[in-house]
Design a protein that fits this description.
two-stranded antiparallel ribbon; membrane; transmembrane helix; 2 strands; mainly alpha; transmembrane; single chain
C-alpha cells in the first residue's frame, strides 16, 4: 500500500510533467533514425518514468531448473521499417499526445497508461 501511495505522489509531483519531456525527447531520437535505438529504449521505459512502474520480463523455468528470458517473435524487420517511415513516426506523436492528455484527467488515467505501454508497438510494430 505504501508503494502505491508513493507512486501516486511521484506521478502528480514529478511523473506527469517529466513524462511529457521524456516522451518528446524519445520521439525526436526515434525520428532521427540514428537515435532510434536510444529512442525506443526510452519509450520502453516511459511507464517507469511516468509512475515508477517496474519493468516486466518474461522468464521460463525448465524442468531442470534453468531460468532464461524469453521474447515474443517480432514482425519482419522490413515490414517494421516501412511501417515506421510511412506511419509510425507521425502516428506515435499523436498517440503519445493523446495518452499524455488522458493522464492529466483522473478518469482518463487507466487508458492513458494503457496507451503509453503500447507506444513501441505504434512506432515500430514491436511486439511487447
Amino acid at each position: 500500500m505504501l508503494l502505491l501511495i508513493l507512486r501516486i505522489i511521484y506521478f502528480f509531483a514529478f511523473g506527469l510533467w517529466f513524462s511529457a519531456l521524456w516522451a518528446s525527447v524519445a520521439w525526436v531520437f526515434c525520428v532521427t533514425i540514428v537515435g532510434l535505438p536510444v529512442g525506443l529504449w526510452m519509450l520502453n521505459r516511459l511507464p517507469q518514468v511516468t509512475t515508477l512502474k517496474p519493468q516486466r520480463d518474461q522468464f521460463v523455468v525448465t524442468t531442470t531448473g534453468e531460468v532464461y528470458r524469453t521474447s515474443l517473435p517480432q514482425v519482419n524487420l522490413l515490414v517494421r521499417a516501412i511501417w515506421f517511415v510511412l506511419v509510425g513516426w507521425w502516428l506515435s506523436a499523436l498517440w503519445m499526445t493523446v495518452a499524455w492528455a488522458l493522464c492529466t484527467v483522473i478518469i482518463g488515467l487507466p487508458f492513458g497508461f494503457w496507451m503509453f505501454n503500447r507506444v513501441p508497438a505504434v512506432i515500430t510494430l514491436a511486439r511487447i
